[in-house]
């Protein structure tokens, strides 16, 4: 059985991107019959149907969706390899994962400098919890990710990126928090399971045998801070985020013990993986620490 060639993947992806055989043929400057034949040959080679018809439209089958993720990575790598060998400068797409807090408070200046130096690299950001992002790295869905301690590093290489100070925030007029016991029977507002900062807070409370009355799971720091300001509960956030969401005067912020408050953010990637664009990003991170 022959291996899948890049041209077939390129045609397959064009059909997906442009929404059908006709538009893909026009964009690729090929006749429709050629596109149809190449897709059929690819399906025969793989032994699966890559598309299904729904209401006269072609939609991806589950197998087609799976192949698309591989096609994206293979075509991107092929493009990067050619560009790297031809010019030795970063090109193509760099898809990285990031926690929302890092995307909001830390990445704008870093990525601005990166873009100025390497304008031919297109950066795509995917946000999520540290646990979810590490899964994406290991499944080849992103090339690297910014994640926070604590996390399991099996199968990963890493580089320190940022250092954060975590603070506890509560409603502005609520009683002051001096110990974990002051949070007993309170609602904890946090991201879903897999968030490193949530895990830190739960472990800190656990050391005093404090269990939150309930956990309200939200998907953004804007929503978390807004709920805290409205009196719904308490949360743990990086201090840098409070400035980004303009919430310094909307909530009460309390320092945490140093062993809890000091959190490192790491850039992680698959063990042994290298690319010109990622190496350039690692270089920019190294510069900012000098």
Compose a concise summary of this entry.
The protein has helices at 6-18, 21-28, 32-46, 62-87, 100-105, 107-117, 130-138, 196-206, 221-229, 239-244, 258-261, 276-288, and strands at residues 51-54, 57-60, 92-98, 121-127, 144-148, 156-171, 187-190, 214-217, 235-238, 251-255, 262-270. With 290 residues, the chain is α/β, with parallel strands linked by helices.
Mean pLDDT: 87
How many strand segments?
Answer: 11
Q: Helix count?
A: 12
| Main beta sheet | 7 strands, mixed
State the share of residues found in helices, binned by percent.
40-55%
Helix and strand sequence: HHHEEHEHHEHEEEHEHEHEHEH
From the helix content, strand content and strand pairing, which structural class follows?
A: alpha/beta
The fraction of residues assigned to DSSP E strands is 15-25%
Distance between the termini: 53 Å
**Uncertain regions: pLDDT < 50 for 5+ in a row?**
none
Instruction: Provide the gyration radius in Å.
Output: 23 Å
Shape from CA axes?
elongated
Give an overview of the whole structure.
With 290 residues, the protein is α/β, with parallel strands linked by helices. Helix content is 45%, strand content 24%. The chain has twelve helices and eleven strands. The protein has helices at residues 6-18, 21-28, 32-46, 62-87, 100-105, 107-117, 130-138, 196-206, 221-229, 239-244, 258-261, 276-288, and strands at residues 51-54, 57-60, 92-98, 121-127, 144-148, 156-171, 187-190, 214-217, 235-238, 251-255, 262-270. The strands form three sheets. Strands 3, 4, 5, 6, 9, 10 and 11 form a seven-stranded mixed sheet that branches. Strand 7 (187-190), helix 8 (196-206) and strand 8 form a beta-alpha-beta unit. Helix 1 packs across helix 2 (21-28) and helix 1 (6-18) packs across helix 4 (62-87). The protein starts with 5 loop residues before the first helix and ends with a helix. The model has no long low-confidence stretch (mean pLDDT 87).
């Amino acid at each position: 059985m022959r291996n899948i060639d890049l041209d077939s993947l390129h045609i397959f992806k064009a059909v997906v991107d442009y929404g059908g055989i006709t538009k893909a043929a026009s964009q690729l400057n090929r006749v429709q019959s050629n596109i149809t034949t190449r897709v059929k040959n690819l399906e025969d080679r793989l032994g699966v149907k890559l598309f299904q018809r729904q209401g006269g439209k072609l939609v991806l089958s589950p197998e087609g969706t799976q192949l698309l993720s591989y096609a994206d990575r293979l075509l991107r790598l092929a493009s990067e390899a050619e560009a790297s060998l031809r010019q030795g400068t970063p090109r193509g797409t760099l898809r990285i994962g990031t926690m929302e807090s890092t995307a909001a408070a830390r990445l704008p200046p870093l990525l601005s400098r990166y873009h100025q130096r390497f304008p031919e690299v297109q950066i795509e950001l995917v946000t999520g919890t540290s646990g979810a992002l590490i899964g994406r790295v290991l499944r080849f869905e992103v090339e690297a990710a910014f994640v926070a301690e604590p996390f399991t590093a099996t199968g990963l290489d890493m580089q320190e990126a940022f250092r954060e100070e975590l603070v506890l925030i509560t409603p502005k007029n609520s009683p002051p928090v001096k110990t974990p016991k002051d949070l007993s029977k309170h609602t904890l507002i946090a991201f879903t399971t897999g968030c490193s900062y949530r895990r830190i807070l739960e472990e800190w409370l656990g050391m005093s045998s404090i269990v939150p009355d309930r956990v309200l799971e939200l998907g953004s720091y804007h929503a978390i801070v807004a709920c805290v300001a409205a009196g719904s509960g308490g949360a743990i956030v990086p201090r840098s985020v409070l400035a980004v969401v303009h919430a310094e005067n909307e909530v009460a912020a309390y320092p945490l013990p140093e062993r809890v408050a000091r959190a490192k953010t790491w850039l992680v990637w698959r063990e042994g993986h290298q690319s010109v664009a990622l190496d350039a990003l690692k270089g920019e991170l190294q510069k900012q620490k000098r």
